[in-house]
Design a protein that fits this description.
The chain has a five-stranded parallel beta sheet, sandwiched between helices. By secondary structure, it is an alpha/beta fold. It has nine helices and five strands. The longest helix has 25 residues.
């Protein structure tokens, strides 16, 4: 069996760059690495509208079910076969993003969060990451948003919502420290990559 590693955190924290750098480094060490991310339908959902008359945002429940449907296909067609083939998978976002974006940042109750967990587990057939790295850009959220420009309706909700997202990811990391590790994303690219590879190496080698 291979290893399933997910990268999480708010947009602009450098996940995509670090995913590519980590995958490249692992390949140079001789590992068979698959880079993946949530399906293209998620890009559509971020800006989804019905296209008739005024914009009518999808409800949180509709968003969640569509995300989970896409994730179910992603797991069945790509992720699970790759894990079973012994590959190291590095995936940009997974169930933790749903818990934060559609749950914690929306002020959902503990019961609703628990329901989201059950739905996520159902959608993925119980596939769980061996390691989740949460990229944290504390203190630089506004500057990074401004540099990136407003790109989707999540970012359009402003800094306060970005702060709620950050708090949600940190809450998950605090509740499940054995799986979720917070990575300080504000260091140099080389420093962040070193931390990422160190965390992945511990999981691959079986260290605690």
């Amino acid at each position: 069996r291979g290893f399933f590693i997910t990268f999480e955190g708010i947009d602009g924290a450098g996940k995509t760059t670090q995913q590519h750098l980590a995958a490249q480094a692992l390949r140079e060490q001789g590992y068979d690495v698959l880079e993946s991310r949530e399906p293209v339908v998620l890009s559509w959902l971020k800006g989804a509208r019905f296209g008739v008359g005024p914009e009518l945002p999808l409800t949180t429940a509709t968003q969640t079910l569509l995300y989970l449907a896409a994730r179910s296909e992603h797991v069945d067609k790509l992720l699970r076969p790759a894990v079973e083939a012994g590959k190291i998978i590095i995936c940009d976002r997974f169930n933790d993003s749903t818990l934060v974006y559609q749950g914690l940042a929306q002020g959902k109750t503990p019961e609703e969060i628990a329901q989201l967990r059950r739905l996520g587990s159902f959608a993925t057939g119980g596939l769980e990451p061996d390691l989740t790295l949460v990229f944290d850009a504390a203190g630089k959220l506004l500057a990074r948003r401004q540099q990136r420009g407003v790109q989707d309706r999540y970012e359009q909700q402003g800094l306060e919502f970005q702060q709620r997202l950050r708090a949600g990811f940190l809450q998950l990391a605090e509740a499940e420290p054995e799986r979720l590790q917070v990575i300080d994303a504000l260091g140099s690219q080389q420093e962040v990559t070193a931390k990422v590879l160190q965390a992945i190496s511990r999981v691959i080698s079986g260290e605690k």
